[in-house]
Amino acid sequence: MGDLRTMNAEEMFFSTTDRRGVIRQGNSVFVRVSGYPLEELVGAPHNTVRHPEMPAGLFRLVWDGLNAGRPVGAYIKNRTKDGGSYWVFAAIGPLHDGYVSIRTAPHSPLFELIQRVYAHALRVERAAIHENGMSRHEAALLGAAEIEASLWKRGYSSYREFMLHALPEEVAARSQVVSMVYDRPGARGSIAEVLAGTGALDGVLDELVGRLAGYQKLGDELASTSTRVLDIAHRLHASVTAAQQASELVEDSAPVLANVARVMAKPMTRSVTALERLQTEFGRLKSDIAHLRFQISLASLYNDMAAAFAAEVFDGDAPPESLGAVPLLCDAAEAVIVEMSEQVQRVNAALRGVAGLVAETGTLLEEFRRFIGQWRNLVLRHKAGPALGDKVRPIDTEISASWEWMELLRTLGRQYESAIVPFDPAFLQTHLDKIRIAPAAL
Ligand SMILES: Cc1cc2nc3c(=O)[nH]c(=O)nc-3n(C[C@H](O)[C@H](O)[C@H](O)COP(=O)(O)O)c2cc1C
Question: Do both 194 and 315 map to the same domain?
């Protein structure tokens, strides 16, 4: 099958469709790379550019997301009019009564991975159709399940989780290669206004993405530290139970030992519970951050696309009418920004929750430390003390290990508290409004 085309790193495809995927608009890059004149693309279903080597299961997963009203990201191999092919990373999102798709050249290492996943799903689909007589519809469902199973083996709980990760990775990898490409210092009027507005938005979104990258690092540290502390807490808990049992042996001669052992079990149990809750909260925070990162990256793609239109018109590569797509892109970006602002609230609440739980665990463990200190003193002073020596030593070891980790956890908890995302949707909105009305003046 024909040759493999490569796109330039800064190139972005643009198309809009109705709800069924029938193309309404396309840009000059789509026309040039696909080899179809615009007149042939407009009014045609998007599967006109479908490549036979793409597993149907992928499109099943894409449409499942779109039908649920969610934006979706996907690596797609397309066919050109003359039988050649090209790969893109497509971000497809809802827009008014249809969809908008922005496609860029794949840049991230995930591209390698997904090609292997697709090749396997395609083999399974073809075998199901040709050897087992399965219908195309059933084979697509099977292919979708195969894609998810392959991704699961690579640590993604679903296709959705994969694409929530892939889109920001692609946007980040692209920004390493492409920067300032839409700057046109000579631009005047509407074009200059669109470029100024998109430049300002880009700055804000970039800052947010940088912040989230920091959260991810902090999150990974917190995850491993809290797992470690939970492990120590479980072992301490076991030691406390042993101390309780030992104290009961000497309860007649030293009832105070058993009493203190009983009392100290309480903060211990509660701190184990708090640490277990921390694990759950933490998982939620990670997923909320992944969503937010996806939304910010999607808004930044829409924003870049608007800048690309203005730059193309300035360069004379597209007619001034193509700036008509800019307000549409502003609408798409606005919808994402509205969701983003809700997501920011969720992330901030989760950040506070995690910081609160870390502090709570710290207080409970401190309380436990006081009791265990008392208990240790009593053991030392009591005549039954030497007999309990074997029970005391493992507790001492666990305690000294736990303070170090607890201190680390607390430092991370404090960092979390100060990590609250500053987000002002009104600021973004003002810029969007400026970009939206600029083309009207043309
Ligand atoms: C906005 C939008 C963009 C799309 N872009 C592509 C694309 O670039 N390539 C592609 O093969 N399918 C694309 N699709 C999916 C097609 O509509 C179609 O589902 C797919 O080509 C599989 O064809 P089939 O459903 O006839 O099997 C897009 C759909 C939408 C809504």
Answer: yes
Ligand 1 mutation target, pool 36, 46, 62, 99, most atoms within 8 A of CB: 46
- CB-CB neighbours of 351 under 10 Å: 22
Q: Residue 25: phi, psi to the nearest 5?
A: -140, 155
pLDDT in tens, 14-73: 999 999 999 999 999 999 999 999 999 999 999 999 999 999 999 999 999 999 999 999
Q: How many domains does the chain have?
A: 3
Q: For residue 217, give both structure tokens.
A: 């690092």
HSE-CB at 155 with a 13 A cutoff on CA atoms is 3
Cα 79 to Cα 396: distance, rounded to the nearest angstrom: 68
Helices (H), 316-419: 325-381, 385-417
Same domain, 69 and 153: no
Going from the first residue of the chain to its last (442 residues), give the mean pLDDT of each consecutive group of 10, the final group possibly shorter: 72 94 94 94 96 98 96 97 95 95 95 98 98 96 98 96 95 84 89 92 86 76 78 80 81 84 86 85 84 93 94 89 90 92 88 86 84 82 72 75 78 76 83 85 60
Which residues line ligand 1 at a C-beta cut-off of 6 Å?
15, 17, 21, 46-47, 49-50, 56, 59, 76, 78, 90, 92, 99, 101
Cα–Cα distance for residue pair 159/167, rounded to 1 Å: 12
- Give pLDDT, residue 233: 79
Q: For residue 439, give every residue at least 6 positions away whose Cβ sits within 8 Å of its Cβ, in sequence order, or none.
A: 190, 194, 323, 324, 326, 327
Helix (H, G, I), strand (E, B) or coil at 155: coil
Contact between 322 and 28 (Cβ < 8 Å)? yes
- Give 402's DSSP letter: H
pTM reported for the whole predicted model:
0.89
Which atom of ligand 1 approaches the CA of 47 most closely? Answer: 21
364/222 same-domain check: yes
The enclosing domain of 85 has a CATH number of 3.30.450.20
Domain limits for position 395: 189-441
